[in-house]
Amino acid sequence: MTDKPTVIYNDSCPICSREVAGYRRMAERDGVELGFAGLSEGAHADHGLTRDQAARRFHVVKDGTLYSGLPAFAVLWAEMPRLRWLARLVRLPGLSHILGAAYDHLVAPALYALHRRRQRRAESVSGKGRAG
Q1: Does residue 1 sit within a domain?
Q2: How far does Cα 68 stand from its chain's mean position?
Q3: Given strand 65-68, what is the order of strands in its sheet?
Q4: Would you say residue 75 lies in a domain?
Q5: pLDDT digits over 95-128, tens only?
Q6: Across the chain, what does the average pLDDT equal?
Q7: Judging by DSSP bridges, how do beta strands 59-62 and 35-38 pair with one another?
Q8: Is residue 74 included in any domain, yes or no?
Q9: Can you tell me the distance from the alpha carbon of 13 to that of 21, in angstroms, rounded to the nearest whole number?
Q10: Is 117 left (phi over 0), alpha (psi -120 to 50) or beta?
Q11: pTM listed for this prediction
Q12: CA 42 to chain centre
């Protein structure tokens, strides 16, 4: 397959959206072809992910393979000339284990918790609007 790599991200998360916007700008400046699909676009379902699963982690699809977490970042960074060094760094055996664990057990859960809090707040506000 020669499909361009596609980033699947939580576009309702301000932190995720800001980070992905930076990747998008960098890719455009460097002439790198990438696809970007926010959860609101429904692309996660094309790859067997529920919306909730997709919101929990960062995902990249390349050549038909779905990557998740730190490996997804490494796949994305390897595509970008300015970040290839970072992809090589995070793939080093000892470092990949430590950074992967940090992402899996600290960063991703914290971002997901913020996402859930925003969802509950939005549901609360929309519920109040209907009742009043």
Answers
A1: no
A2: 8
A3: 35-38, 6-9, 59-62, 65-68
A4: yes
A5: 999 999 999 999 999 988 988 888 888 888 877 6
A6: 89
A7: unpaired
A8: yes
A9: 12
A10: alpha
A11: 0.85
A12: 14
Tally of domains within the chain: 1
Query: Is 87 part of a structural domain of the chain?
Result: yes
The secondary structure of 97-116 as a DSSP string is HHHHHHIIIIIHHHHHHHHH
Q: Which residue has the tokens 């899996």?
A: 104
Alpha-carbon span 25 to 20, nearest angstrom: 9
| Helix (H) or strand (E) run with residue 8 in it | strand 6-9
Residue 93: Cβ within 10 Å count: 6
Number of H helices, E strands in the chain: 6, 4
CB count in 10 Å sphere of residue 58: 24
**What mean pLDDT do residues 9-38 have?**
92
The candidate with the shortest Cα–Cα distance to 55, out of 8, 118, 105, is: 8
Single-letter residue type at 67: Y
Domain of 11, in residue numbers: 6-127
Q: Which two tokens stand for residue 47?
A: 């790859």
In contact, 11 and 37? CB cutoff 8 Å: no
Per-residue pLDDT tens digits for 79-93: 999 999 999 999 999
